[in-house]
Design goal:
- The protein is of the alpha+beta class and 396 residues long.
- The protein contains twelve helices and 18 strands.
- Strand 1 and strand 2 form a beta hairpin.
- Bound molecules: adenosine-5'-triphosphate and magnesium ion (MG).
Length: 396
């Protein structure tokens, strides 16, 4: 088990610091930039494209889950980030370094210094103690004086709650503890980025929870973590979820707004969307106008406003990224019951789905249809309540 509370690394003198203290310039917020990454495998049966043009940006300090069905390309995607495999096309920039511009041996050293990797099956060396396993990456990149390494490794084992097991062989501790030791090893060179492929896939739920606690703590201390997982209870604890379906990324707003679609339905929607931008305060839908689109908010905010005869505006709701509107009119077939505008604070980027595509989506996903019907009912109730209040105000 991983200890519940640990000493913050920054307060422990001599410990490799877990907080990234490098000054950040413009554009330095990106930890990972993948641009149009394609990966094709060739075998006897021919060519097989597993990644079909991945564009993905991950900022420093994010805790990102990568999810997708078996065979969708999750591990292949992670291997493009770790440099374990190389892309057929496109670019991968990590911490400002284009990692496929290096030679294989340069990349290997770069990986040792900049990246911690955690696997589903730990991959600790069975004949070395936990402490010796943690020291290995230090040896590989030549970090710290030889005599200093055991102390540094011990401090990392303390962070993951394994100081008492330091001199034990991996098979003599639980699977959860083996994974905690593997994480300590991944931290050995104090890399800013951790990449993990199903790190809890071989653990029971308590041990899995402890590993995610540890990851959350590392993220709070400035690490960036990208983790492949199958487990929905884990994605609830990350700061962001990236969904891959058949080698293509699902739009994250679609996945957030319409979580009850299956992944290939999400991908279908991603492909049919139209992007629209509105300036601060600009009208998106006027009251009594016909509505022909279902809108999801990608960036910025919109105001849903009721306008009275005396031109007194009443703000019904403010919606933000991941929220949607237009569904009431599409479901009921009527005209708009309110004004929708871009909030004055900034421009709004919307993802628009046509009426026909919206209807098709509801036909194909009864769960989404139910969820949207519930939202329609809730919003109509709210709308009526505000309308009634306005009428009373007019009378008074
Ligand atoms: N080295 C390889 N050579 C040929 N095909 C490969 C290779 N590695 C992966 N593939 C194929 O690429 C596809 C995606 O594999 P990948 O391992 O990325 O999937 P995954 O999403 O991680 O699946 P899982 O959830 O089962 O781990 C699969 O069809 C797999 O068979
Ligand atoms: Mg995999």
């Amino acid at each position: 088990m991983v200890a519940a509370s640990r000493v913050p690394a920054a307060l422990t003198p001599g410990l490799p610091t877990l907080t990234s203290t490098r000054p950040r310039g413009r554009g330095e917020d990106e930890m990972i930039q993948m641009r149009d990454v394609v990966k094709t495998f060739k075998n006897a049966a021919g060519e097989f494209t597993v990644l079909k043009g991945i564009d993905l940006a991950i900022k420093r300090g994010e805790f990102v889950a990568i999810v997708g069905k078996s065979g969708s390309g999750k591990s292949t995607l992670l291997n493009m980030i770790t440099g374990i495999d190389h892309p057929t096309g496109g670019q991968v920039v990590i911490g400002g370094t284009d990692i496929y511009k290096m030679t294989e041996s340069q990349r290997s050293l770069w990986r040792g210094k900049n990246l911690g990797i955690v696997f589903q099956f730990f991959q600790l060396l069975p004949m070395l103690t936990l402490l010796e396993n943690v020291m290995l990456p230090m040896d590989y990149v030549g970090l710290y004086d030889f005599d200093e390494r055991p102390k540094k490794a011990m401090q990392l084992l303390e962070i993951v709650g394994l100081e008492k097991q330091a001199h034990t062989l991996p098979l003599a501790v639980s699977t959860g503890q083996q994974q905690a030791a593997a994480i300590a090893r991944a931290l050995a060179t104090d890399p800013p980025l951790l990449a993990a492929d199903e790190p809890t896939g071989n653990l029971d739920s308590r041990a899995a929870d402890a590993i995610i606690d540890l990851f959350q703590e590392l993220v709070e201390n400035g690490k960036t973590i990208v983790m492949v997982t199958h487990d929905p209870s884990i994605t609830a604890r990350t700061s962001r979820t990236v969904t891959i379906s058949d080698g293509i990324l699902v739009n994250e707003i679609v996945a957030q707004a319409l979580p009850l679609l299956n992944h290939s339905q999400m991908l279908g929607i991603t492909r049919t969307l139209e992007r629209r931008v509105y300036q601060p305060g600009e009208n998106i839908i006027r009251r009594d106008e016909h509505v022909e689109h279902f809108f999801m908010i990608e960036h910025g905010e919109v105001d849903i406003v009721l306008q009275g005869k005396r031109r007194d505006d009443e703000l019904l709701a403010r919606l933000g990224p991941g929220d949607y509107f237009g569904e009431i009119e599409l479901v009921r077939g009527g005209k708009s019951i309110a004004n929708v505008r871009a909030a004055v604070e900034g421009p709004v980027e919307l993802l628009a789905l046509s009426r026909a595509d919206f209807n098709q989506m509801l036909d194909e996903s009864p769960l989404t249809q139910d969820a949207i019907s519930n939202v329609v009912q809730e919003r109509l109730k709210e709308h009526k309540a505000v309308d009634r209040r306005k009428k009373w105000k007019l009378l008074g």
